[in-house]
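#onboarding

Welcome to the new folks! Below is a worked example of what a typical request in this channel looks like: someone posts a single protein sequence, and someone else replies with the predicted structure as tokens. Don't worry about understanding the tokens yet, we'll cover that in week two.

Example request:
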Amino acid sequence: MKKDQAKKGSPGRSQGGAQDPSGKKVAALEAQLLRARADLENVTKRAQKERADLLRNGAENLIASLLPVLDNFQLATANLPAHLQKESWVQGIGQIENFFLGVLKNEGLEKICQTQVEFDPQKHEAVATCKGGKPNTVAEILQAGFVLNGKVLRPAKVKVVA
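Example response:
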């Protein structure tokens, strides 16, 4: 009888077009397989997204923890007496600072260091005010801020025109 069914049409169908119990079971298993495949795809996508988020957050945390090191390099080189600025060891420290900053830039780090722009509370932290100039603009950067891949890691500490 199975050979007759195979010749007449799809398995599990009788001549009247209604499904017999084995055909219902096949349809149910096919539907279950489709759901399982969709679930597997969703789990895979979610795992990939979570992994990418974890890597991004780890990089953000590491770079944020390195910002004070960069600040100290900049403070050390900015406040040198004039007679020491030509020393080879001082120039070496400047090169290390530039190299370090270049590595961070390659990872997507950008400085917030523009003056004469409108104060943006997302990018700037006002720590002082001054007079003169266009109100609500950044007059001076007191400490550079940083953005990593579009996300503010540390707002710039600024003086704002009142």
